[in-house]
Design a protein that fits this description.
It is a single chain. The protein has a domain of 173 residues. Helices cover 59% and strands 3% of the residues. It is built from 20 helices and 4 strands. The longest helix has 65 residues. This is CDK5 regulatory subunit-associated protein 3. Keywords: Coiled coil.
């Protein structure tokens, strides 16, 4: 029998001790009294390194109390009488605590209770918390790393937009104005190969039966004269001078700096050099003060005299018909190369005018569609078909290869005039709000980048905090594990003494 071990499962330990009548069933009140005495005794303790180290750990149990008594035997040995009794109140208090613990084996019941709680709850809880913080730490690092992709995308998009606009993004208003000056160069570059479309244009005219002037007129004008003003396109002669409308560029920061002079109505200067700027102060329409209905009737009954009466002649301003017409700002167009002044929309070039630029693009698409249809007919229609013979009458001199070449030339011109930089600058010049939209978009991209960077730094900081919190749990877990193993050893030894030193094994404990 001495060689047969006693195996007790951890979950059944307390029930096993109660069923063997080793400990009482209810020990809560006794433990409460003992805890009260321990609290009172701790108020008066000697200064000792071992005591400080001992009291620094977890909750004090019976085995700690035994160690405290052993230490007090050294510190309180001067109070020991010849009969072996201690006169120190400290020693008396702790001996009383030991006596209460050993009564009804309360110490064993408490040790079993703490041991089971540590094994089933405390240690697993701390381990779960550590595992949770490890997982959160890895997630923070992963999210921080994943933010590099959107940050790179925003920065690339911001850089690409600045490149398309041809600006650096430091002073947008001045840089926009400077970039708009490159528009004529971009227009000229986009149509430098436009004469390669002459063969396709002639083929389209022959097929449709249109005259040279009727067939895609804007495209033909650009091929012959280049990117001229709308005025020259409409009047078939260049203007004497060009007065392009003011730039519509408007940024929020520029709107706040408008002066009072902007409220004046400016009709331009005449040839005599006199200013025709009319301010609000000059225009005075007077007040209508008709107090009675009779006065109103009389005023309405007055006839308008256009001349002939003495009263009208006295009040009228004498008109001098000898003033040269140049002083009224009227320009008389002459013959030949003499022209007028290109103003308003006619001062824009064909590619710079919103209306004519769109018409030119439509003409290119029209020509492209025609060539694609001819190419389709060459490839798919039956050669013996009457329709095929009727369609091939005008293109019999062109094969599939030549049509493909024409189509490629048209597509190249379309691509050139539709490039990103040209489109942005075109909208920037002709739309008052487009500048604000671009500035707002650029600002939002930079804000998004800053937000991403701030979030990434926050995640990295949080990951570091989680790592530190996880590391801080290591000593706590080690202390609880050590305490639990010591309790397990004490419990096994105590039960073994009660059963003739048989081996006792607590199953289901800590690994």
């Amino acid at each position: 029998e001495a060689d047969i071990p006693i195996d007790i499962h951890t979950l059944k330990l307390q029930d096993w001790l109660v069923s063997r009548r080793i400990v009482p069933k209810n020990i809560q009140q006794a433990l409460k009294d003992i805890r009260t005495k321990i609290s009172d005794a701790l108020q008066d303790m000697p200064s000792h390194d071992k005591l400080i180290q001992l009291l620094k750990g977890a909750n004090i149990n019976y085995f700690h109390c035994k160690q405290i008594v052993e230490i007090l035997k050294q510190t309180e040995k001067d109070s020991k009488s010849i009969f072996g009794h201690y006169g120190s109140q400290r020693m008396k208090d702790w001996l009383e605590i030991l006596r209460l613990y050993e009564k009804d084996n309360i110490y064993l019941a408490e040790a079993a209770q703490v041991y089971v709680r540590n094994v089933n709850y405390e240690v697993p809880s701390i381990r779960r918390q550590m595992s949770k913080w490890e997982q959160q730490h890895e997630e923070c690092l992963k999210r921080s790393h994943d933010l590099n992709k959107p940050e790179t995308a925003f920065l690339a998009e911001h850089t690409t937009l600045l490149q398309h606009l041809g600006v650096k993004g430091e002073n947008l208003k001045e840089e926009f104005i400077e970039a708009l000056r490159t528009l004529p160069t971009l227009y000229a570059e986009s149509i430098k190969n436009i004469k390669t479309l002459e063969e396709a244009l002639n083929l389209y005219g022959q097929t449709t039966g249109q005259t040279r002037q009727q067939c895609l007129p804007i495209l033909r004008h650009l091929m012959e004269f280049g990117n001229t003003t709308v005025y020259q396109y409409c009047h078939k002669e260049p203007p004497l001078s060009v007065e392009e409308p003011p730039l519509k560029l408007s940024l929020s920061e520029a709107q706040s700096g408008r002066s009072a002079a902007d409220n004046e109505i400016d009709y331009g200067d005449d040839n005599g050099g006199t200013s025709s700027t009319i301010s609000a102060e000059i225009i005075d329409f007077g007040e209508l003060n008709l107090e009675t209905e009779a006065d109103l009737a009389v005023s309405e009954a007055i006839d308008i005299d256009w001349g002939g009466s003495e009263s009208a002649a006295a009040n009228a301003v004498e008109i001098n018909f000898d003033i040269p017409i140049e002083e009224y700002g009227i320009v008389v167009e002459g013959a030949g190369m003499d022209g007028g002044i290109a103003k308003g929309d006619q001062a824009y070039t064909l590619l710079d005018s919103p209306a004519y630029s769109e018409r030119f693009t439509d003409e290119l698409y029209e020509l492209e569609s025609f060539l694609k249809m001819r190419l389709y007919e060459l490839r798919h229609l039956d050669a013996s078909s009457n329709i095929m013979f009727s369609l091939l009458d005008n293109i019999s001199t062109h094969d599939e290869e030549s049509i493909c070449k024409m189509l490629t030339n048209v597509e190249d011109i379309l691509t050139a005039i539709s490039c990103e930089q040209t489109r942005h600058l075109f909208q920037l010049k002709h739309s008052a709000k487009y500048g604000d939209l671009l500035a707002s978009k650029l600002k939002q991209m930079l804000k998004a980048v800053e937000k991403i960077r701030h979030t990434r730094e926050t995640l990295k900081q949080r990951a570091q905090e989680l790592k530190q919190e996880r590391a801080a749990l290591n000593p706590i877990l080690n202390d609880i594990i050590n305490q639990t193993k010591q309790l397990q050893q004490h419990i096994e030894e105590d039960i073994s003494k009660r059963y003739k030193c048989r081996t006792v094994n607590l199953l289901g404990g800590l690994n």
